[in-house]
Batch of 3 targets.
Target 1
Amino acid sequence: MATLLYLHGFNSSPNSIKARLMREHLARHRPDIELVCPQLAATPAAAWSQIAAICDGLDGPFGVAGSSLGGFWATRVAQLYGVRAVVVNPAVNPHVLLADWLGEQENPYTGERYTLTGQHMAELAELRVNEPSCLDRIWLLQQQGDEVLDYREALDYYRFARVCIQKGGDHSFIGFEHYCAQIIRFLQL
């Protein structure tokens, strides 16, 4: 059975809107694909360890999709596991972006409380794919109206990937539900 690994963003969960939309799409149109959408650990090294363990345990073909920080993780999966990835309004430099968020955090979906530290920013910098050789297997879905991330960073970083750039929108990627079937086709699942 093919698997879609969906990776949520910072302080999010498997109950995020995009994860729910993908789950509903697969249940309705592609029940032959298993969705794996874990609650990722709050800290980077622990999250990557969790993601790598999931990837190592998958038997059949799989693809990965991720939004925001999940896009950062999906890029790393594509690079290290040779699979296709779809990244939605991805965080290209989360070690820079999240430096403004250091301190006490609470995940609004799970209620988990933790402290984001400078060490976590160092972990993100270390885990970043600095020179990706996997861009021919990545599809960037980006909206210019993203209020959290500068869309130009993603356009530069993913410039050799398949790119879909839209005017307007926001960080949630308005209209994501219209892309579910195309995402599955791109991932060749």
Target 2
Amino acid sequence: MLLASYLLAALAVLLAWPVPVLLARASWPSRAPAPAMLLWQGIGLAGGLSMIGAFLCWGLAPLDKGLIPAAGVLIHAILGRSELPGLDVVHLFALSLAALLGGHLLLTLGRSAWRLARDRQRHREMLAFLSKPEAGPGTAVIDHDTPLAYCLPGAGNLTVLSSGLLRSLDERELRAVLAHEAAHLDQRHDLLLLAFTSWHAALPWLPTTRLALQAVAELVEELADDAALRVSSREDLLGALAVVALAGQAEAPGALPGGTGHAASQASVPAPDAPSEALAAAADRWTVPGSPHEALSSRRLGRLLAPDAPLGPWPRRAAGTSAVALVVLPTLFLAAAGWDVF
């Protein structure tokens, strides 16, 4: 079990710094956002499992049993209030860290989910009073001059639009916006963002969590863009984003609780035919790294203005296989430790 703890610790170190840093700096995820998203999930799951498993295996190693029998001995000793021979203060500290880390991650996830559900419920109640009754099913229109579009996932998915947005976009641009928001709802991007937001909240001192949240927040927008491009032209989507995602000197994004969206001021939004440099400068100024709402980053804008060729099938399969392998590897180490293989 001691060897398993060392292997898990080494894997945890790799997934805590060099691997996510290299992935965050890579350019290929924009060419294949779905495999990149899967890879980030694998890094998060494998990293947490490796950290907890390393402390657990190392703490139980002196019992000289498999992980499962040793855990049974530990539980029996705790319930019977008896001493455990061979477990000194250092090993007990490692076991305490494993329990605290696992509990902290689960509690943070539960607390984040509860707060988000509460905010969304309050948001829905507010929309019931503010939205126009003539809005179609699954859509709410609020009377506000600021161009605004966002989605509200959960029970009864809802897409919220402002009257200012409806006046600013033509029919084709509006179709692109609706397709973009529908992709967020259909693909349940809110759950992905919830997981990585909770991970960052639980371990804010770990740079990996910030990099992962920032990358995932951008990838979900790219996935939604790809869905919109299947029903709309690139020019229509860019024209809509110029109105919806560039805020200029308007409110900061995410002002409404529980939603996923971005507001923009008409007076400060560049025209759709403005130079790409002006759009990129405005995008950089109003992107909030790592925040779970709409943001037009330079990478996302460049991807729409000058798209690269999609990643080939073999690299996509390699990314997906790597994500699965990352989760399987610590699981195998723990299984081997469970039966005292090494």
Target 3
Amino acid sequence: MYGLSPDLAVTAHGPIRLVELNRPGKLNSMSEGLHTALAEVWDRVAADADARAIVLTGRGRAFSAGGNFEVMTRVQRDQAFRDQNVNEARRIITGMVRCPVPVVAAVNGPAVGLGCSLALLSDIVLISEDAYLSDPHVQVGLVAGDGGALVLPLIVGLARAKELLFLGRRVSAEDAVRLGLANSAVAKDAVLDEAMSLAQRLADMPVQALRDTKRAVNLHLEQAMSTVLEAALTAERESMHSPEHVAIVEKLISRG
């Protein structure tokens, strides 16, 4: 649906659009095609007159493992591709914040790096009891520019956001709910069904009232984007070819 990469499957279930990261054998880590599709899908759904709610999830046992070494290596060496990657990251973030259709994240497994940002930028987050959130950008020598620096301080405050971003620690489902990073923890085999049921409830609500409420609440994110996003993305772009990042990725690749 929408003519996007097969790495992002979009299917219609009545008024609900089920958006599934579709690289289960790679834990839904970012391929070039998946990253591009995530930059495009939000405008496509916004233009879909029949769409009333979105469920975002990952196929297989992960929500998304975030970046992958193949893409990271190309980003390090290819300036044009690096610029494309940052521009797409900007479109992913702004697209999610400005998409008028409410997004329910069904976090069915680990949500790491950009995967964590995808979950946190959703409107309502259901997380599997055995899943976790983590943003380890700093641990691989990257600035946490594609979402973490923007949204985490608004949810958990500055001190906790710095802890999570500096240390990249895993946040369990229980702690995610306690910290306000997720709305509820759900049994693993029920998270998608619960998300679809919730999305149907949203789809049945008055359209204009719901969409304008989302827009009004997201003005807090818009304000943060106006001050934080460009600086964060610029810093991340520079870190993408820094000696520290290159050395860390080479070391991790050599470990297999």
